[in-house]
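Hi V.,

You were right to ask for the full record rather than a summary. Here it is.
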Amino acid sequence: MVIAKEWGRVQRHRRVRKKIVGSSERPRVVVHRSLKNIFVQAVDDISAKTLASLSSLDKDVAKAASKKGKISLSEQLGKAFAEQLKKKGILKISFDRGGYLYHGRVKALAEAIRNNGIQF
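Predicted structure:
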């Protein structure tokens, strides 16, 4: 059974997904947040493939975080993910916040991706 709060997030995500479609030129970047970690992936919806993915569980990302805390970890994850996208030649994305508020960790991740040269 899904809790009411999570069910609401899933419903919001479905509403957003009706409008946002990722392609190989402009993939959809999806964020998933758990209580301890945050996950991000670039998806080409047309060919149904994941082009790039990264999470806060990655040891390099966790070591590079300047301070303790989930927001600084999200910023570091955004920076590392932007570098990964640049290596694959992706400079433009569609950001899908996954039904979460654009606030806190999700905002820190998005701003870090944007500050490292990826256009939304």
